UniProtKB/TrEMBL annotation:
Keywords: Oxidoreductase. This is Aldehyde dehydrogenase (NAD+). Its EC number is 1.2.1.3. Residues 40-494 form the Aldehyde dehydrogenase domain. Belongs to the aldehyde dehydrogenase family. The active site is at E268.
Length: 503
C-alpha cells in the first residue's frame, strides 16, 4: 500500500496527534474539583486541517451558578484561612505537576491554536514561569503600619475578594490563564475561569492537573460560548471581581455589566501598536524586531507592531529588508520543526483578516503576501501569507483598525514631532516600539508615546515581574507584576485607639 503524501499525510498526521493528545482524558468543564458535563457541546477545531479535535461542554448561566457555588464553598471552607506561605506551597506543588506535563500541554496548545510547536512549547513554559513568580511573591505579601500618632495604632491589611471571574482569549490560552490564575490564587481568591471556545483544551487540562493539590472548588473552569458562560460570569452577583482579556468591543460590555453591580474589573483589550524607526536605527536588529512583533503567532497578538512608522531617509531600505524578511517565513504544518508560521486560529478570524486585506488593496500598495500560500497540503487550513502594505496613510482603515493577523502597514514620517503625532493618532494605547541608537531619543519617545508598554530595538520579552496593560481603549488595570496582585486584593485600614483608659 502506498504511503500517504501531501495534504493526505498532513491530515492523517494531525488526526493521529489528536488521538495521542486526548487519549484517556475527558475534556469536560471542571467544577468543584471534578469533571462537569452538559447535554450540549461545542467543537474545538484544528486550524491546520479544519477538522474537529473534540467537543467540550456548552455551559450556561446555570452551570456558572454551580461553579460560583463551588468556589464560595471552597473559599469559605478552607482557602480564605490559608496563609500566604501555605498558598505558595500548594501552588508550587501544582507547578511541579504542570512541569512534568510540558510536552503534553505543548502538543495540545499546538493542535488547538495552530501555533508552531516551538512557539507552543515556549508559551507553556512562559505560563509555568508566571505561576512560579506568583507562588514566590505570594510569601512576600505584607501589610503596612502607618505612624499617625502616639495614641493611635493605624495599619492596613489586605484581603481577597472571595470569588473572582476570569475570561481569557483564544490566542494565548494557557499563558493568559496563568496571567489570571497566578495573582488571583496568590491573593487568596477562588476563581471561575472561562477559556475561549476556540482553544479551551490546555486550560481544562491544567485545572484537571490541580486535582488533589488545590482544594476542590478553588479553581473552576466553565467552557462554552462567550455570550452564554462568559456573559453569566460578568453579570453574576456573587462574583466580586472580573478580569477579561479580549477585544475592546466585548471588553466595553464586560465593564458595563460589572458597573451595574459596582464590581471592579481588569481589562486587557485591543491594540494598534506603532514601532517608530528613527533614521539612526540599526536595521539589522530593528527589521527583525518589527517582524517578530507582527508575524509571531500569525499576528494574533494584542500588542502586535501593526504600524511600522519609518523615517523617510531610510524608508526604502527598511521596506526592502522588511519585505525580504516577511517572505522568509515558512508556512507549514505546525507539527514540523521548520515551520515558522502556522494558520490563523479560527475560520472567523481567517475571514476577518482576508476582508481587511481586501480593504487594504483599495487603500495602499500591496508589497507582498495578501493571499493563501500556494501549497496544496495547506489548502484546508486557515493560512494567510505574511502581508505587507506600503504607501499607507495613518487614516487608512488598515492603519486604524485592529486586524489581528499577519498584516503590516508601513507609514513614513519626516520629523520627530510627526512620528509622535502619528504614533498617538489611534484610539488604542497598548504597546509601542522605538528603533534608535540614541539614548536620549529613547527616553524622550518613551515619555511622549501614549502606550502602556514600550519596547526598544526589540519585541519582548514579556516577563511576569513587569505590569502588562495599556491606555485609552486598550484597557483598564494591569496583568502581571505586583500590581496585578493588588488588583485581586481589598485593602482595609484599621484604627486602634491607644489612649489611656479611664479608671
Amino acid at each position: 500500500m502506498a504511503e500517504p503524501h501531501g495534504e493526505t499525510a498532513m491530515r492523517e498526521r494531525h488526526l493521529s496527534a489528536h488521538e495521542d493528545a486526548t487519549d484517556g482524558i475527558e475534556f469536560s468543564a471542571w467544577i468543584g474539583g471534578d469533571h462537569y458535563r452538559t447535554e450540549e457541546g461545542v467543537e474545538t477545531r484544528d486550524p491546520a486541517i479544519d477538522e474537529p479535535i473534540l467537543a467540550v461542554p456548552r455551559c450556561d448561566a446555570r452551570d456558572v451558578d454551580a461553579a460560583v457555588e463551588a468556589a464560595w464553598d471552597a473559599f469559605d471552607r478552607e482557602w480564605k484561612s490559608t496563609t500566604p506561605r501555605e498558598r505558595s506551597g500548594v501552588m508550587f506543588e501544582w507547578i511541579d505537576v504542570l512541569t512534568d506535563h510540558v510536552e503534553e500541554l505543548a502538543l495540545l496548545e499546538c493542535l488547538d491554536t495552530g501555533k508552531p510547536m516551538a512557539q507552543a512549547h515556549g508559551e507553556v513554559e512562559g505560563a509555568i514561569d508566571t505561576l512560579e513568580y506568583y507562588a514566590s511573591v505570594c510569601r512576600a505579601q505584607r501589610a503596612e503600619q502607618i505612624p499617625a500618632g502616639e495614641d493611635l495604632h493605624l495599619y492596613t491589611k489586605h484581603e481577597p475578594y472571595g470569588v473572582v471571574g476570569q475570561i481569557v482569549p483564544w490566542n494565548f490560552p494557557m499563558w493568559a490563564a496563568a496571567w489570571k490564575l497566578g495573582p488571583a490564587l496568590a491573593a487568596g481568591n477562588a476563581t471561575v475561569l472561562k477559556p475561549s471556545t476556540d482553544s479551551p483544551l490546555t486550560t481544562i487540562r491544567i485545572a484537571q492537573l490541580s486535582e488533589g493539590i488545590l482544594p476542590d472548588g478553588v479553581l473552576n473552569v466553565v467552557t462554552g460560548k462567550g455570550s452564554e458562560a462568559g456573559g453569566a460570569i460578568t453579570e453574576h452577583e456573587e462574583i466580586r471581581k472580573v478580569s477579561f482579556t479580549g477585544s475592546t468591543a466585548v471588553g466595553a460590555g464586560v465593564m458595563h455589566a460589572a458597573a451595574d453591580r459596582v464590581a471592579p474589573v481588569t481589562l486587557e483589550l485591543g491594540g494598534k501598536s506603532p514601532f517608530v524607526v528613527f533614521p539612526d536605527a540599526d536595521l539589522d536588529r530593528v527589521v527583525d524586531a518589527v517582524a517578530d512583533g507582527i508575524f509571531y503567532s500569525t499576528g494574533e497578538i494584542c500588542d502586535a507592531f501593526s504600524r511600522a512608522l519609518v523615517h523617510e531617509d531610510i524608508l526604502e531600505e527598511f521596506t526592502d529588508r522588511f519585505v525580504e524578511k516577511a517572505e522568509s517565513y515558512v508556512l507549514g504544518d505546525p507539527l514540523d520543526e521548520e515551520t515558522t508560521m502556522g494558520p490563523l486560529t479560527s475560520q472567523s478570524q481567517f475571514d476577518t483578516v482576508t476582508e481587511y486585506i481586501e480593504t487594504g488593496n483599495g487603500e495602499a500598495e500591496l508589497l507582498c503576501g495578501g493571499g493563501r500560500p500556494d501549497d496544496p497540503k495547506l489548502e484546508d487550513g486557515w493560512y494567510v501569507e505574511p502581508t505587507v502594505f506600503g504607501d499607507v496613510k495613518n487614516s487608512d482603515t488598515i492603519a486604524q483598525e485592529e486586524i489581528f493577523g499577519p498584516v503590516q502597514t508601513i507609514i513614513p514620517f519626516s520629523s520627530y514631532e510627526e512620528a509622535i503625532e502619528i504614533a498617538n493618532d489611534t484610539r488604542y494605547g497598548l504597546a509601542a516600539g522605538i528603533g534608535t541608537e540614541s539614548t536620549s531619543l529613547v527616553h524622550n519617545a518613551a515619555a511622549d508615546i501614549d502606550a502602556g508598554l514600550i519596547y526598544v530595538n526589540e519585541y519582548g520579552p514579556i516577563l511576569p515581574e513587569a505590569p502588562y496593560g495599556g491606555f485609552k481603549e486598550s484597557g483598564a488595570g494591569k496583568d502581571l507584576g505586583l500590581e496585578a496582585l493588588d488588583h485581586y486584593r481589598k485593602t482595609k485600614s484599621v484604627y486602634v485607639n491607644l489612649s489611656e483608659p479611664s479608671v
